């Protein structure tokens, strides 16, 4: 796999970790004693702060990975990679942080998304 592809994927993984914590991490704040009941505005500011780091990694990933910038991926492929990574990170996050159990329909739905990734990357 070319170095630009690997770099793009690693940056997207890091970006998605920040994104997942920004979007869902605040839902666990009630479990932290000193931060039991933050106001909505405080939570929004915290999420924006984390989202900044999401963009610090997301923007370079897209610039490095995009064919129009000399990278290996089309725009559709970049978005597909990002969505697949988002699902993987979300599954790990929700299982570890929220102790989420996945039902059969969740697994089937995620499998259909994996099939979509295959279809998008398949050279017909």
UniProtKB/TrEMBL annotation:
Pfam families: DMT_6 (PF04342). The keyword Transmembrane applies. Keywords: Membrane, Transmembrane, Transmembrane helix. The chain crosses the membrane at residues 38-57, 78-98, 104-121. It comes from the Bacteria. The keyword Transmembrane helix applies. This is DMT family protein. It comes from Nemorincola caseinilytica. The lineage of its organism: Bacteria, Pseudomonadati, Bacteroidota, Chitinophagia, Chitinophagales.
């Amino acid at each position: 796999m070319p170095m630009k592809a690997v770099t793009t994927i690693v940056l997207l993984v890091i970006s998605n970790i920040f994104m997942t914590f920004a979007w869902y991490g605040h839902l666990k704040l009630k479990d932290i004693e000193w931060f039991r009941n933050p106001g909505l505005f405080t939570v929004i500011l915290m999420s924006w702060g984390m989202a900044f780091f999401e963009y610090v990694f997301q923007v370079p990933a897209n610039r490095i990975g995009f064919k129009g910038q000399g990278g290996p991926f089309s725009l559709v492929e970049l978005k597909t990679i990002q969505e697949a990574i988002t699902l993987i990170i979300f599954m790990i996050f929700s299982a570890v942080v929220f102790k989420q159990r996945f039902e059969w329909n969740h697994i089937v739905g995620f499998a259909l998304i994996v099939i979509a990734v295959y279809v998008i990357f398949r050279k017909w």
